[in-house]
Amino acid sequence: RPIRGRRLPPPVIQACILRKVRENIVRNVGRESRCVITVPAYFDETRRKATADAGEMAGLRVRDILNEPTAAAIAFGESLGYLSAEGGSRRPMNVLVFDLGGGTFDVTLVHLEPGRLDTLAIDGEMELGGYDWDLALLDDLADEMVTAGFADPRDDPARWAKVYQAVVEAKLALSARRKTRLRVMLDEGFFETEISRTRFERCTADLLERTALRAQNVVEAAGMTWEDVDEVLLVGGATRMPMIPEMLEALAGKKPRRNVNPDEAVARGAAIYAGYLLSEEYPELPVAAFKVVEVNAHTLGVEGIDPSTGGKTKIPVIPRNSKLPVSKTEVFCTERENQDSLAVPVIEGESPDPAACSRIGTVVIERLPPGLPKG
To answer: Of the four listed, 97, 174, 202, 345, which is most buried by Cβ atoms within 10 Å?
Structure first.
C-alpha cells in the first residue's frame, strides 16, 4: 500500500531500515567498515540480489551475503571452541540448524569440524514463520468470538489489529505456562477467554507438520538418518514455542540445544564471519582462520525446447544442494538449420515448468559457425 502517497519497492524499504542500522553502527563504533548481510537460506538469487542492492542503497559496503543458518552454525561452533586455536582436538559433528523466524523458515544440515563448516543440505519455506502461528490462533479465536455474538475481527482492520496484539501476547505467555487468559476491549464490550497450550497446538498442528517434513527432507537429502545428526540447534524467536523443541526431540532422539541466544545467533555468526573476511584489511582483529562451504538452495538450469512437444521446458543443470563453487557442462542442439545465434535463459527453481521458476539471467551466444544443421 502507499506510504505517504508513494509506492515503494521492497528493496527501497529495506534500504531505509539498513540505513538506520548503519547510522547506529557509526555512532557507536566510530567508523564504517564492510559488512556481511544474512538472508534466509532458501532465498533464491533474485531475493539475494535485492537484499544486496538494498544494502548498497543504504550506503553499506557489502562484503558478502551469508545464509542465516550458516551464520548461526558459525556462532554455535565458536561457542564450543571450534574456531579457536585449540579447536583441533574437537571431534567433527553434524548439526541440524532449525531456523524459524517471524516470516521465514529454514532447516539446514551442516558438518562442523575444527576450522571448517560444510553445508550438506538446505530446505525451507520462504513464507512460513511465527506470524502464521499467530494467524492460526487468531482464526480459531475469531470463530469463538462470532459464536459469542461479537463481530468478526477479520472483517475490520482496526478490530483485527486489537485482537492480533492480544493473540501475540497470549502466544508468548503459552511458551511459559500451560494456560493464559486473553482479554481485549472492543466496541461492543469486553471479550475474555481462556486459551490453553493444547488448543494452540491443535490449531497449528498443520504448520508444525510442515516444519517436521522439511527437517526430515534435509536429513534424507544429505544421505543420512537421524542417528547421524549429533546436535540440533534452535534459531529464531519462534523456536521458543514448546511444540518446536518437543517435535524435534521426537524426530532426532535428542534435546535441541540453545548454546547461543536464538535471537542473536545469526547476528553473532555474521559478525564472526565478517571479521574473518576482513582480517586482511584489519590485521589487529583476533580472528581464527576457518573455511565455509555452502550449497545452492535451488536447482539451476536453462529454459529449452522439448523436441516431442515443441514447447518450453526446464532443463536441470546443477541440482540443488550441490557444493559451491560448482561447474557443469551440458550439450544442447540447435533449434533450426543455419542458426547463427541463440539466447539461453538461466532459471532457478524446482518446478518442471520454466514459467514457475525464477529467471536470473540470459546468456546470448552469437556468431555460431555457418551452415549448422538443425539438431
So the answer is: 97
> Distance of CA 58 to CAs 14, 22, 36, 45, 332, Å?
8, 8, 14, 20, 42
CA distance 135 to 270: 31
SS3 64: strand
Residue 212 CB neighbour total at 10 angstroms: 16
Answer for the pair 71, 269: CB distance below 8 angstroms, yes or no. Answer: yes
Single-letter residue type at 173? A
pTM of the model: 0.90
The per-residue pLDDT for 59 is: 93
Q: Where are the beta strands (DSSP E) in the chain?
A: 34-39, 61-67, 93-100, 105-113, 116-125, 179-186, 189-196, 231-235, 291-293, 300-305, 312-318, 342-348, 358-365
Instruction: Give the cell for residue 250.
Output: 521426537
Helical segments of 148-279, H only = 157-174, 197-203, 205-221, 243-252, 265-277
Given a cut of 70, the residues of the chain with pLDDT beneath it are 1-2, 84-89, 285-286, 288
Fold of 130-203: Actin; Chain A, domain 4 (3.90.640)
Angle between the 45-57 and 10-29 helix axes, to the nearest 10 degrees? 50
3-state SS assignment for residue 204: coil
Contact call for residues 220 and 122 (beta carbons, < 8 A): no
Whole-Å CA distances, 338 to 303, 331, 344: 21, 18, 17
Nearest to 106 by CA among 297, 320, 258: 297
Say how far apart CA 38 and CA 286 lie, in whole Å: 22
Cell, residue 194: 481462556
Residue 235, φ and ψ in degrees, nearest 5: -135, 140
Look up cell 513464507; give the residue: 127
What is the SS3 assignment for 120?
A: strand
Per-residue pLDDT, 249? 98
Q: How far is CA 66 from CA 166, 194, 199, 271, in A?
A: 35, 42, 37, 11
Backbone angles phi, psi at 63, to 5 degrees: -85, -35
> Closest Cα to residue 298, out of 106, 53, 110?
106
How many Å apart are CA 122 and CA 107, to the nearest integer? Answer: 6
CA distance 36 to 274: 6
Domain residue spans of the chain: 130-203, 300-365
